[in-house]
Amino acid sequence: MRAKIFRYAVLVGVAALLLSAGMFFRIQLRAEETEIFERLAIEAEYAKNGLARGGKTYLAGLPDESRITWIDRDGTVLYDSAARTDSMENHLSHEEIRQALEQGEGRSSRFSKTLQRRTFYYALRMSDGTVLRVSCDHSNLGEMMRVVALPGAGILVLVLLLSVFFSDRLARQIVRPINSLDMDQPRAVYPELGPLVDRLRSQNETIADQMADLRRRQEEFSVLTDSMREGFLLLGSRGEILSANHIAQDLLAQSPVQTLEDPACEQTIVQTARRALKGSRDEARLNLNDRVWQIIANPVRLDRARAGAVLLMLDITERDQRERLRREFSANVSHELKTPLTAISGFAELMKEGMVPPEQVKEFAGDIYDQSRRLMALVEDILDLSRLEENTRPRPMTQVDLSALAGRVMRQLEPVAGRFSIRLEQELAPCTVLGDESILEEMLYNLIDNAIKYNRPGGWVRVSTGLRSSFPFACVADNGIGIPPDEHERVFERFYRVDKSRSRAMGGTGLGLSIVKHGATYHNARLSLDSAPGKGSRVTLTFSTEKH
Fold first, then answer.
1. Residues 462, 479: contact at Cβ < 8 Å?
2. Which residue, 73, 230, 361, 425, could crosslink 462 as a Cys pair with Cβ 3.0–4.6 Å?
3. In DSSP terms, which residues pair with 132 in a beta bridge?
4. Considering only CA atoms, which of 406, 424, 530 is closest in space to residue 473?
5. How confident is the model at residue 478, as a pLDDT?
6. In degrees rounded to 5, what are phi and psi of residue 187?
7. Sheet with strand 105-112: strands edge to edge
């Protein structure tokens, strides 16, 4: 706009200069023509008076400044100061001669293309009817322009410089308020800009509404993705990060990044994303910070063209752990079942083949019976554990006196404690919980039985019940061998044994504490373990008073 204003202003200045120069030359030419005709009229008047007194002799004695021609009334040239009369044409047809014959005087001018000059004629009628004409040559307009060319060129250059200077200044002054226009709150700096300003205001309002709507949608999208437990990553066609929730950002890099090309990015995610950006769905597995993530990448298409990729990052740590535990459980179950079955099969085969002396048949039968009982206990524990995992309730929940139940279990285990020289102690304050009595009994039985078997000769086992901060609890403590801190979580896994040789010697199935853990979950109870090697163990069950 500034260039256009500048250009038009310069053009206006130059056009005004040329128009002024043309008018000047025209006025100057008119003034000069008038001056010539006046001079010729004076000369004609003097020549008329002289001709009347002295005839042709007078005319011949005049100086050669102007050409004098005497013409008869029929157009015949009687005298000419510049040419022979007998070679001259009839002048009756000349305009100035006709005017003089009709009006007493005449004037005209004619341009000679051959001589490139203009001749002015003034004719005056004599008293006898003849015509006296005075003429002179004059330089044409081109000669006049050559005369004024140098000063005119200087004036033109000056005017051009002034036009450029003032045009540039004018353009700056006009454009400056427009350039400084506040697009957020525009106002009309010129009345002519009023419609434009109104449209800008309307567009600003429309844009503000659209931006507010976009911000609202983006906030909703951010809240939605940030509340996800999965990582969400949206990429552009060149790998630029368009959107990412906090989980995806933490997995992708330790610090915020803007593109996958950043070297700080996790390469497993980068490679998976690149394959999706090429148009192929891809999956990958990522082990990071003790967690296992499944990366699923899908290409995004817009009008059949690849527009980017979307990545979903699923935390499969628990699923992976469950799968690992399932494999371990299957292997352990197979092993635990195979051991007594092998013993039973071996004893039975020996008896079948008659290889057992009669006096040892009873002993072999006892071994078969013991292994069968062990096998039945293992199967029963597996079934109990399965029911707890499936959260099935064989009987309705009832109010169970936890202190009475603990006392009954302790009486059942008194013979076992006597064999291991363990002293049983109790601090049983009355308390009741809503639950399944058989499952609660099995939980307490497993805890007390473990505390007896994994103790030391002459040790003690203390069972406590009551209320703690208004919550019912049961606690089994001992001064036995204890459990290392790094084993605290694993002792509740199925078939996991801290001391495998001692566990097998005790005849346990390896499912006791796992049943306790699932039973606690079944009853919405909190299970805690406090133990250290050589200092004994304390297992506490704290029950919620809410119904479940």
1. no
2. 425
3. 70, 124
4. 406
5. 93
6. -140, 150
7. 77-80, 67-71, 131-139, 117-125, 105-112
Query: Which pTM was predicted?
Result: 0.41
Task: Decide if 72 contacts 88 (C-beta within 8 A).
Answer: no
**Pick from 384, 317, 379, 376: which is nearest to 518 by CA?**
384
Q: Among 79-83, 116-120, 142-146, 376-380, which is the least confidently predicted range?
A: 142-146
**DSSP string computed for 385-433:** HHHHHTT--SS--EEEEHHHHHHHHHHHTHHHHHHTT-EEEEEE---EE
CA torsion angle for 297, 302, 306, 312 (degrees, to 10)?
-10
What pLDDT is stored for residue 502 in this prediction?
Answer: 46
Residue pLDDT, tens place only, 430-446: 999 998 888 888 889 88
C-alpha neighbours within 13 Å on the C-beta side of residue 6: 12
From CA 355, how far away is CA 236, in angstroms rounded? 80
What gap in Å lies between CA 459 and CA 309, rounded to an integer?
65
Q: H or E segment at 295?
A: strand 291-302
Instruction: Strands of 144-281 (E only): list them.
Output: 231-236, 241-244
Please give the Cα distance from 212 to 217 (Å, whole number): 9
* Residue 431, φ and ψ in degrees, nearest 5: -165, 150
Do the beta carbons of residue 536 and residue 478 sit within 8 Å? yes
Vertex 116 angle, CA 110 and 119, to 5°: 30
